[in-house]
Write a structure and sequence with these properties.
alpha/beta; 4-stranded antiparallel β-sheet; 8 helices
Length: 300
């Protein structure tokens, strides 16, 4: 078991009478690529801003690398959704700014990455494509040599090819540096083959937090006659229950419960990541999953 790289306890932020985030408790192990998902307005950006010290909590606490968020900034990099670049700067200017502001700056690695991407150093930021701007912002974040990289909607406003290229570049950086990544998105398909830890936020609260493989293994999708659905649901934990005419589709959290004895009219299949996320988001009051023990992550 390892110490978590990120730990929140009873974390909350209130704007006047409204809570943007409330009773948020979670722990993330080191070395993971963490998907933070939820609908617009769920509190994803608020949580990220609390993690990197841009906001102070109204209630509770957040610790990064064993320290309060603001005290760990030198070892944390943050890339905001609007890509923190200066339009009139050249790419070279952005690298120079990064070097002057970050004592752990790896300028050689940044230049190699930009050269491999074919991005000219003398090009002004406002003359780059949206995808190239995202790559420059990501390069600057990784060149800081952080232990935790926090990305707020890094794929927003990118076309499908640029989205693929940015995610590929991110995974290459993870493989080279073994950093931990926390990235938010409301598009689950972008995260399915990239992330290995999942946090689901809904209505400012954490619904799910855990290892993706373990979460998927603990759920099943059942399809069968609607007339028998209530009897099936009474014997297990139902996260989502959708019925159309005579057919019912149930998302179950099975865990270690005994196998269900079903009539031949029922079919059972594994759950995909998108089905799991949507199932919880459809039911914001679904019971929060028990927090899995933090284990040393294995990378391949």
């Amino acid at each position: 078991m390892t110490d978590p790289i990120l730990e929140a306890t009873g974390l909350g932020l209130r704007y006047r009478r409204n809570w943007a985030l409330r009773d948020c408790s979670l722990a993330v192990p080191r070395g993971r690529v963490v998907a933070l998902v939820g609908p617009n307005g769920a509190g994803k950006t608020t949580l990220l801003h609390l993690v990197v010290g841009l906001l102070a909590p109204t209630r509770g606490s957040v610790r990064v690398l064993g320290e309060p968020g603001r005290d760990a900034l030198e070892r944390v990099a943050f890339m905001a959704q609007d890509k923190p670049l200066y339009d009139r700067f050249t790419v070279e200017d952005m690298l120079t700014l990064g070097r002057r502001m970050n004592p752990r700056w790896d300028g050689a690695a940044a230049r190699r990455r930009l050269d491999a991407l074919g991005i000219p150093l003398n090009r002004k930021v406002n003359k780059l494509s949206t995808g190239q701007q995202a790559q420059v912002a990501l390069t600057c974040a990784v060149a800081k040599r952080p232990e935790l990289l926090v990305l707020d909607e890094p794929l927003a406003n990118l076309d499908p090819l640029a989205r693929h290229d940015v995610m590929r570049g991110l995974m290459e950086a993870v493989a080279e540096t073994e950093l931990t990544v926390l990235l938010s998105s409301h598009v689950v398909a972008d995260l399915e083959n990239t992330c290995d830890w999942l946090i689901v936020l809904s209505g400012g609260r954490v619904q799910v937090s855990g290892d993706i493989d373990e979460l998927l293994a603990a759920h099943r999708l059942l399809t069968g006659p609607a007339a028998e659905a209530d009897a099936v649901a009474a014997r297990t934990t139902v996260i989502d229950d959708r019925r159309t005419g005579r057919q019912a589709t149930l998302l179950l959290r099975t865990g270690e419960s005994a196998p269900l004895l079903l009539s031949p009219q029922w079919t059972e299949c594994p759950v995909g990541l998108e089905e799991l996320v949507l199932g919880y988001l459809r039911r914001p009051d679904a019971a929060t999953l028990p927090r899995p023990a933090l284990a040393t992550p294995a990378r391949t």
